[in-house]
Specification:
Layout (H helix, E strand, L loop, with lengths): L1 H15 L4 H14 L3 H14 L3 H23 L8 H17 L3 H19 L9 H9 L4 H13 L1 H7 L4 H11 L6 H17 L3 H4 L6 H13 L3 H17 L8 H12 L6 H17 L1 H6 L3 H13 L7 H9 L11 H16 L1 H4 L5
Helix pairs in contact: 1-2, 1-3, 3-4, 3-5, 4-6, 5-6, 6-8, 7-8, 8-11, 9-11, 11-13, 11-14, 13-14, 14-16, 15-16, 16-20, 18-20
Length: 370
């Protein structure tokens, strides 16, 4: 009977991935029916995630596990509808952690980490001691030389950031140690970026500015992550780190205050470096604009903020890929409202020069371009 159930689950997962609408609709109906027996559904999905040889099947099983945990365990917490047995919850806890430790594919490990985070939120929101093994496992992961395990543990910290911020204030010092060690130069950049993402989520979840102060010491390590990624030519990793910096600048500008000069200097260097991918330069300039808009007083107090940012924006506007008069005319005739129009350096520079005066005031801007 068990083998039959697993065969049926695999067939349903493959049907859900079908390009045939009729086949997919039938599979969705089968999934809706399976929800009436959540223990069987969860047991079959976790079996697919742990043992199926097809990466696509394992990946979809992880996605569905997360969705069904959100749906069914939320209902269980509210004492509504069908419930999940204690035995199946225990199965999910152990098998998901084992999956993260043993799954060879990074993308599937990431999905499994998301499932763990969602399961933990649902369990511990009602019973903070409902998964006593989880946090020791996560801490052990961050102390491990196993890079995939370290990265996965930080991904779970990221998902649980709000819970930790609100319910585990006494352990914030421990989390500072985790972030500090994970951002060290000897760590792999994938680990350091995972730490950046978790740190950003945690900072946004904290309710009091005073709670963020101890974590300000991490800003130089955060900046060093970008510098090291650039030095190694790892532009994707650099892009991820820059995106985190923009996110932090948007939501927690004052967190960067102590190290703002170093942040601005680094972003100016990136935005003005024409040998880098344009997307990196755009993100660096976006950081500068976000600082100007979110903390204009701080920006105006920096002697070189406008004097360094404006020339970068002007230089971008001059980076037109038009080698002939005909190409220049075609560029001038482009319809800016067309959805498929590519965003150019000219566009980014022009927008920057529009936003800076609005943020800092014309008085601070006028001496620079003129």
């Amino acid at each position: 009977m068990v083998d039959v159930a697993l065969q049926q689950m695999e067939a349903m997962l493959r049907a859900l991935m079908s390009t045939d609408n009729a086949v997919r609709n039938q599979a969705e109906e089968a999934l809706a029916q399976a929800r009436q027996a959540p223990d069987s559904l969860f047991s079959a999905l976790i079996a697919m995630l742990r043992s199926n040889q097809d990466e696509q099947v394992r990946s979809l099983a992880a996605v569905l596990l997360r969705k069904e945990i959100i749906r069914l365990l939320a209902q269980s917490a509210d004492a509504q509808g069908v419930t999940v047995s204690t035995q199946v919850k225990a199965l999910l806890k152990s098998e998901l952690l084992a999956c993260i430790e043993q799954e060879p594919q990074r993308s599937i490990r990431k999905k499994a980490s998301d499932v763990v985070g969602q399961l933990a939120i649902n369990i511990m929101s009602n019973d903070p001691s409902g998964w006593p093994e989880l946090f020791p496992w996560m801490l052990e992961g961050t102390r491990s030389t196993n890079v995939p395990l370290h990265e996965a543990a930080l991904a779970i910290f990221n998902t649980l950031s709000e819970f930790i911020a609100e319910k585990m204030a006494a352990h914030h010092g421990m989390l500072l140690d985790v972030f500090r060690s994970s951002l060290q130069a000897q760590q792999e950049l994938s680990v350091r970026n995972a730490a950046l993402r978790a740190l950003a989520s945690f900072l946004m979840a904290l309710s009091e500015p005073s709670q963020r102060v101890p974590f300000q010491e991490l800003v130089p390590l955060m900046l060093q992550t970008i510098s090291d990624a650039l030095a190694r030519g790892m532009e994707d990793e650099c892009r991820e780190a820059l995106e985190v910096f923009v996110e932090v600048a948007e939501s927690q500008t004052k967190f960067l205050k102590r190290h703002l000069a170093e942040c601005v200097t680094g972003m100016i260097a990136i935005a003005s470096n024409t040998s880098l991918d344009d997307s990196l330069r755009h993100l660096a300039l976006e950081f500068l604009l976000t600082i100007a808009e979110g903390a204009p007083t701080l920006a105006r107090k920096m002697p070189r903020f406008c004097a360094d940012t404006v020339p970068v924006a002007l230089a971008m506007m001059l980076e037109l890929e038009c080698d002939t008069a005909q190409e220049l005319q075609e560029w001038e005739d482009e319809d800016e409202d067309e959805e498929d129009t590519e965003v150019t350096n000219y566009d980014v520079g022009e927008e920057a020069l529009d936003r800076l005066p609005l943020a800092l005031g014309g008085k601070g801007m006028m001496p620079v371009p003129f």
